[in-house]
Structures are given as C-alpha cells and as structure tokens.
Specification:
Blueprint: H1 3-12, E1 17-31, E2 46-59, E3 62-75, E4 78-94, H2 98-127, H3 140-160
Length: 161
C-alpha cells in the first residue's frame, strides 16, 4: 500500500487519541497554625481529604485538567497542619465522542495527576516536621459515577418544580 493510501485509510478510520502534553504544579500551600505546641499533643490524628477537579478547554482539542487535594490534620481538635496541592495537566484529545470525552477528562486524567499530588503532599508534610502521610489510592471512576448520579437527580428534581 502506498503512503497516500495508508494516510487515506487512517483518515477514514481515525479513532480517539489522547496525548499528555505537560504536567505542572499550579498551586501549593502548607500551614502549621499551632506549631510548635501541636508537636506535644498526645492523641490520634484525624486526617480529612478533600478532592476537587476542574476542566478548562484551552482550544478545540486541548484541555487543562486541574486536580486539587486539601488535607487537614487535627489532633485533639487543634489543626496540626493544612496542606493544599493543585497539579494540572494539559491533555490533547482528538476524535472523542462527547460522553467518552467527558468521562476521560473526569476519570482518566485525574488518575494521571493523582500520583504527583500525593507525592507533593507527602513531601510537604514531612518537611513540616510531621509523621509521613501517604494518601491511599482514589477511585475516580466511582467519584465520577456519583457525580453523574447527583447531576441526574438535580436535573430530575428541577424539572418537577
């Protein structure tokens, strides 16, 4: 097959393609508001994790996905530390159907970014003088499904009103 025929065949059967163009740190913050006294507190730390993601369309086939994780650690109801990391990725997305694009941006892209967020949080907590913290894996597929259910329920309740 000639190169022209191959190109024509590929153009007619072009499936979805994705490329990771860049991963970068967008924002970081670490606070230890009760240090140094909190280092003497006795008790079990209470760790809370809040995840948020945001998608920005940069052009027709390029998206920025930002994953923000906020970790708050309290001991005896006193804040030991608060750490927030926002990492972003620029993803090229071509030939996706709308639903597949939405799901890829909501599930796959955060999965790519999470290890970077987790490592930065761990490094910052240790640098702050606290015990190492390793965040457990997150099921972004389950989170996405829950968000879709909530959106459907909200749409259904708003049409009833």
């Amino acid at each position: 097959m000639t190169e022209e025929n191959q190109a024509a065949a590929q153009a007619g059967h072009q499936g979805p393609t994705m490329s990771l163009q860049k991963i970068y740190t967008k924002d970081v913050s670490f606070e230890a508001p009760n240090a140094p006294h909190v280092f003497n507190e006795q008790g079990q730390p209470d760790i809370k994790l809040n995840l948020n993601q945001k998608v920005n369309k940069l052009d027709e086939n390029t998206y920025e996905v930002a994953l923000t994780a906020t970790v708050t650690c309290t001991v005896n109801e006193k804040t030991a530390y608060l750490v927030e990391v926002c990492n972003s990725g620029i993803f090229g997305m071509q030939n996706f159907e709308d639903q597949a694009l939405h799901q890829t941006l909501g599930v796959y892209c955060p999965n790519v970014l999470f290890p970077y967020v987790r490592q930065q949080i761990s490094d910052m907590v240790i640098a702050g003088g606290f015990q190492p913290l390793l965040l457990q894996p997150v099921n972004f597929e389950q989170m996405y499904a829950q968000q879709m259910r909530q959106a459907q329920e909200q749409a259904a309740s708003s049409t009833k009103q």
